[in-house]
Design goal:
Elements lengths: L1 H21 L3 E5 L4 E5 H48 L10
Antiparallel strand pairs: 1-2
Length: about 100
């Protein structure tokens, strides 16, 4: 499993390197207060990484934190039910008599 993931990661790294090499023309990014000249491949890969991080952050803030609160509430509920069930006294059935 680890070898497969390593090979997959190397495949994506090699693909990124080839993509960057094939798109080596420089473009100008104008940020109103500053202009930066970068290779086209680097600009696209950086935009992809920034989008990946922002997307992960949005998912984390919208889903993971909500699910953690739900898990805590359900854990408290299970503990409350467990303490209630310990207080119950077993009732002998008719077959035990």
């Amino acid at each position: 499993m680890r070898l497969g993931l390593t090979l997959l990661a190397l495949l994506f790294v090699a693909s990124g390197a080839v993509f960057g090499a094939l798109n080596g023309e420089r473009i100008v990014l104008d940020f109103y207060f500053n202009a930066v000249s970068v290779p086209k491949g680097a600009a696209v890969l950086c935009a992809l990484l920034i989008g990946w991080f922002v997307g992960g952050l949005v998912v984390y803030l919208s889903q993971v934190s909500r699910l953690r609160r739900r898990v805590k509430a359900l854990t408290r509920e299970v503990r409350a039910h467990a303490s209630d069930s310990r207080a119950l006294v077993p009732v002998p059935s008719e077959s035990d008599a």
